[in-house]
């Protein structure tokens, strides 16, 4: 076989391997879900444990547990040493619920049937533009959360875990010290705002979200020692946002909503923005898809594009390009001052806006 034929065969095999890997993607996510529900990462901890012991502690059968742990090893989350004895890798340790940087709630939420089931309707959403979740569950996503307190708590915890990396780097990536007060619009439990206030002792904060969204906020603010400098403002950002701040922070909110809804939220911020005030949007910006000579790929591995489809089927929102952010801001009476990547928190960007 010639060198050209060998290269063509290897390329064809790689192409087939990619398709198989993608087709098995949902199985991998459900493997994660089962492992988290059985708490296998907690049970193994920092050492090595035989599968038979893990199974006993999890209330499971020995042989199926071995098969689960080997699958997790195949995914890079476990390592099998002598036969039937396992340890957790550095990546797998992030699924130990006892760690402060744990992603357990994030995995629980994004593998939950409430999220996953709507993906069955992706083809329909692409055809019609309609939200698959609403048709399947008979209500919108956030109303569904309101009717299921345990799922709502998981959602709030998942958003907090997903924001942990951003919250850690954001205070050092933007000069919050030039403002006197910051309102975090849709700020949930306050994980991001608390880190900002902790880094800027002279700054005051307002945390604005629904009553359910603010449920864990007092605990978060107290844990960071900033409760005395932050007030809670329950409300609906589609109706109004609280006045009185010179900076309005909107993190991971606009992508939940359509362009018209995003314009409404931004418009309410514009209405209360004082002279010289700023709106700071912290969201992913759709990366460019670049060619490699034989294929194309997104700079972030395509995750932001999958998130875009998740918004389509579950919420009716969307991820946006730089130009699309500029357009919704313009419609809301704002102009984009700068767009900069948030270091160490790919694919998030800082989109700073002022009144136009």
Structure in words:
There is one protein chain. 47% of the residues lie in helices and 17% in strands. A hairpin with a 6-residue loop joins β11 and β12 (348-355). It is globular, with a radius of gyration of 23 Å. The chain contains 16 helices and 12 strands. The protein starts with a helix and ends with a strand. By secondary structure, it is of the alpha/beta class. 35% of the residues are buried. A 7-stranded mixed beta sheet has the order 6-5-4-7-8-12-11, sandwiched between helices. Strands 1-3-2 form a 3-stranded antiparallel beta sheet.
- Could you give the order of the helices and strands? HHHEHHEEHHHHHHEHEHEEHEEEHHEE
Give me the side-by-side strand order of the main sheet: 6-5-4-7-8-12-11
Q: Got a strand count?
A: 12
Distance N to C terminus: 66 Å
Share of helical residues: 40-55%
**Beta-strand percentage range:** 15-25%
Q: How large is the radius of gyration?
A: 23 Å
Write the layout of secondary structure elements.
Blueprint: H1 3-23, H2 25-38, H3 40-44, E1 49-50, H4 51-58, H5 62-74, E2 78-80, E3 85-88, H6 104-110, H7 113-116, H8 122-128, H9 132-137, H10 141-147, H11 149-173, E4 181-185, H12 191-199, E5 204-209, H13 217-223, E6 230-234, E7 247-251, H14 259-272, E8 278-284, E9 289-291, E10 296-298, H15 303-314, H16 322-331, E11 334-341, E12 348-355
Helix pairs in contact: 4-5, 6-11, 11-12
Question: Which characteristics define this entry?
Answer:
356 residues; alpha/beta; 3-stranded antiparallel sheet; 47% helix
In short:
With about 350 residues, this protein is of the alpha/beta class.
């Amino acid at each position: 076989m010639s060198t050209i034929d060998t290269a063509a065969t290897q390329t064809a095999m790689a192409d087939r391997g990619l398709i198989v890997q993608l087709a098995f993607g949902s199985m991998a996510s459900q493997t994660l879900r089962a492992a988290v529900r059985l708490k296998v990462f907690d049970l193994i901890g920092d050492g090595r444990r035989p599968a038979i012991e893990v199974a006993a502690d999890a209330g499971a059968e020995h042989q199926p547990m071995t098969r689960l742990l080997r699958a997790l090893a195949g995914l890079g989350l476990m390592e099998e040493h002598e036969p039937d004895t396992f340890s957790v890798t550095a990546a797998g340790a992030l699924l130990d619920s006892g760690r402060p940087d744990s992603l357990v709630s994030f995995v629980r939420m994004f593998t939950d049937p409430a999220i996953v089931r709507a993906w069955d309707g992706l083809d329909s959403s692409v055809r019609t533009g309609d939200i698959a979740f609403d048709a399947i569950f008979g209500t919108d996503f956030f109303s569904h959360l309101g009717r299921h307190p345990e799922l709502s708590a998981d959602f709030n915890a998942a958003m907090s875990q997903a924001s942990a990396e951003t919250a850690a780097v954001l205070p050092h990536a933007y000069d919050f010290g030039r403002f006197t007060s910051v309102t975090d619009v849709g700020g949930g439990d306050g994980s991001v705002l608390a880190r900002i206030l902790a880094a800027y002792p002279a700054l005051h904060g307002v945390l604005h979200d629904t009553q359910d969204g603010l449920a864990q906020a007092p605990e978060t603010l107290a844990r960071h020692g900033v409760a005395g400098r932050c007030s809670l403002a329950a409300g609906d950002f589609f109706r109004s946002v609280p006045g009185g701040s010179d900076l309005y922070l909107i993190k991971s909110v606009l992508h939940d909503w359509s362009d018209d809804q995003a314009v409404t939220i931004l418009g309410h911020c514009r209405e209360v923005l004082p002279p010289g005030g700023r709106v700071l949007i912290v969201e992913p910006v759709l990366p460019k898809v670049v060619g490699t000579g034989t294929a194309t790929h997104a700079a972030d591995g395509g995750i932001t594009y999958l998130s875009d489809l998740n918004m389509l089927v579950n919420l009716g929102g969307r991820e946006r390009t730089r130009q699309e952010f500029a357009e919704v801001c313009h419609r809301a009476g704002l102009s984009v001052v700068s767009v900069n990547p948030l270091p160490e928190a790919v694919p998030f960007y800082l989109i700073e806006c002022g009144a136009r």
